[in-house]
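Whiteboard transcription, Tuesday session. T.W. wrote the structure tokens on the left side:
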């Protein structure tokens, strides 16, 4: 063997060792993002932020599958093992469902954060959208008085003969009779924010159903923060990245701290009514790889996970692409169809639409 061949083989081994090390580190970090969903942010808020990096490590790990297939087939098991361990979480984040069912007995449920609906034109878009869907249940978050009292909106509500349940920033419309008083759900929240949850019991298809609308702790990122984040991605200058990363970490971990306690409160409510029919939805301000989502998913079915397809981002602004609006239902409901409707851009969120029917 020539000196040149020996040198080439040595270089090949060195590069293989380097990329194998990178791959192993990626797999370990990918698994760690999943581990973070088991720990309450109320106890370790900063650790809970690791879940935000799940899609990054997932994409890198998948890329390594193709890399090893081309350059060293014997090592392809490393990224495949990494993916296999978190496969169910990958499906939570980006489900792959092909079949969508239709049924005359299905009800339509919409959850929609309308906080970004500020102009008359945008409000009319919301009204027109609802008219096209004829939903049986609508749960609004960040509902403004101007939209709530808009003549066209009130006319639509009257025409559909909706029952109304009104709370701070939340507004429920239901075609099913409301039973009893509004259920106000108390949990810790930042004193300067109006995040809260409320519910009601309704008589739906011959049974009582607990309907809960949520707007969990916001990450409190204002437009300036979001623009800085976008600028940081486009121009990753070191000092700027370090400064903005510290600021984002402080704000995100602060919000996660409250969401941990809020999630535990919601889980307690579900556990107390585990024999009952439940629909729990709203702006949870958390992605599928989070303590909030995973704790709710242990108790209820996520409509999008069951019948949705793709990442289904409900918020896409300033380089931030996340699915933070969700619809969960109890096991006595069959999810037939669920999607994020990104055709309507009246708000900074997209509505989540779900069709479901009672299991026989």
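and on the right, the sequence the group agreed on:
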């Amino acid at each position: 063997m020539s000196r040149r061949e020996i040198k080439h083989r040595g270089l090949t081994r060195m590069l293989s060792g380097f990329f194998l090390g990178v791959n192993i580190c990626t797999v370990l970090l990918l698994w760690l993002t999943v581990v973070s969903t088991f720990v309450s942010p109320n106890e370790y808020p900063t650790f809970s932020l690791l879940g935000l990096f799940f899609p990054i490590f997932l994409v890198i790990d998948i890329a390594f599958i193709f890399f090893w297939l081309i350059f060293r087939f014997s090592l392809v098991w490393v990224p495949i093992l990494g993916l296999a361990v978190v496969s169910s979480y990958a499906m939570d984040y980006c489900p792959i469902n092909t079949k969508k069912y239709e049924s005359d007995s299905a009800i339509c449920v919409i959850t929609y954060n309308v906080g970004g609906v500020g102009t008359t034109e945008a409000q009319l878009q919301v009204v027109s959208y609802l008219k096209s869907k004829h939903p049986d249940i609508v749960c609004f978050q960040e509902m403004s008085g101007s939209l709530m009292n808009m003549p066209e909106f009130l006319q639509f509500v009257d025409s559909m003969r909706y029952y109304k349940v009104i709370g701070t920033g939340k507004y429920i419309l239901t075609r099913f009779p409301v039973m009893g008083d509004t259920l106000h759900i108390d949990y810790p929240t930042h004193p300067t924010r109006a995040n809260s949850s409320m519910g009601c019991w309704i008589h739906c298809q011959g049974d009582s159903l607990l309907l809960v609308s949520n707007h969990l702790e916001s990450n409190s990122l204002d437009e300036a923060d979001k623009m800085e984040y976008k600028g940081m991605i486009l121009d990753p200058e070191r000092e700027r990245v370090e400064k903005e990363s510290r600021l984002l970490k402080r704000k995100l971990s602060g919000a996660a701290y409250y969401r941990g306690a809020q999630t535990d409160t919601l889980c307690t409510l579900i556990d107390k009514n585990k024999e009952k029919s439940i629909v729990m939805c709203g702006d949870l301000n958390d992605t599928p790889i989070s303590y909030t989502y995973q704790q709710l998913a242990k108790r209820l079915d996520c409509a999008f996970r069951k019948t949705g397809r793709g990442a289904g981002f409900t918020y896409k602004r300033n380089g931030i692409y996340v699915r933070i609006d969700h619809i969960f239902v109890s096991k006595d409901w069959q999810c037939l169809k669920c999607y994020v409707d990104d055709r309507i851009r009246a708000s900074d969120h997209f509505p989540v639409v779900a069709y479901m029917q009672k299991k026989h």
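Someone added at the bottom: The chain has two domains: 3-93, 107-358.
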